[in-house]
Amino acid sequence: MARTLTDRPITCNWGILTAILLAVSLQIFLFSSSSPGVLQIPPPSSVLPAPSNGRLQEVIKLGEGLLKQPEDVAVDRTGVVYTATRDGWIKRLLRNGTWESWRQIESTSLLGLTITTDGAVVVCDAEQGLLEVSEEGVRVLVSHVDGAQIRFADDVVGSSDGTLYFSVASAKHSYGDWPRDMVEDKPHGQLLTYDPSSNVASVLLEDLGFANGVALSANEDYVVVCETWKYRCLKYWVKGDVKGQTEILIDNLPGAPDNVKLAPDGSFWIALLEIVPNRLRFVCGSRAFKYLIRGIPKLGHWVVGAYNRAMVVNVGSDGKIIRGFDDPTGKVMAFVTSALEFEGHLYLGSLHTDFVGKLPL
């Protein structure tokens, strides 16, 4: 029986589809640099320490429309609020309530920032390293460590003696390739220190599960570093008899920790990301799906629900959750990445807003 005209395109299309799938498979299995295995994901707590309260829907929107995805917030000794935006600006809120576009950096990957004791702003450029920003201009403080280029500088905090502590989310994967880090069987995050007197950076901790926020304790005797993929925050001692030792500050958090900030009372504010636990566990336990994300990193966004919710928790120095605030639907605040307490208010950074949130406490 003769083939009809409608049969031929179908056969041809299947051939093209097979060729495409083969090409994608070769790209994934032969040319991807990840080494997927089975990464152990701890079970997060399922709930906040109290029922959802929607408090983050009550924020005052500072600089609405002027700030593109302000990931982090810092305050100097005069009360001026600083933030770094996705379009490369360091912007600041002056005491008179006006916003100033202070310094522009040729970058789309500015993340955590801090104010040094001499009043300079130090900001993490995920791709360039640590940058110091002052009235005189911008200069690179650290771009390499142990001879290797910093691939994903994330957050930074400064001590009273000028020492900087900062995180590298992944020593293997860059800012735009974070999903590939998620499917690695071996974590690549680092905690580092920078000594301004010697101009030398060194590694304090390695093998962290996506090292994110960093904060110093009230006495500056330990550094808190957040491990996003592991739903926990660690304490690394930098002073005293236990100097160089590490312990868990808090684990099994009700979300994946992003930035952490010291509060005036010595506790910590931690911004939590909504990463869908079942999806993350499926991805990290499925070799086939991990290989797929290796070749198509954008598929990694499937496990993140941060655009639909926001959550922050206040954790004591003893590791116990004191209180928590959320926006359960992401109606006002979503993807909150930092929470800074200042003068009775909580200032909130986010990768999904065009404003900094200000919440009365």
TrEMBL record:
* Entry keywords, A to Z: Glycoprotein, Membrane, Transmembrane, Transmembrane helix, Vacuole
Identify a single GO molecular function assigned to this protein.
hydrolase activity
Q: Would you tell me the Gene Ontology cellular component terms? A: endomembrane system; vacuole
Transmembrane parts of this sequence: 12-31
Strictosidine synthase conserved region domain: residues covered: 158-240
Judging by the UniProt lineage, the source's domain of life is Eukaryota
Q: Which InterPro entries match?
A: 6-blade_b-propeller_TolB-like, Strictosidine_synth_cons-reg
**Per its UniProt record, what SUPFAM superfamilies does this chain match?**
Calcium-dependent phosphotriesterase
| Compartments, record wording | Vacuole
Regions annotated as coiled coil: none
Q: What family is it from?
A: Belongs to the strictosidine synthase family.
List the protein's name.
Protein STRICTOSIDINE SYNTHASE-LIKE 4
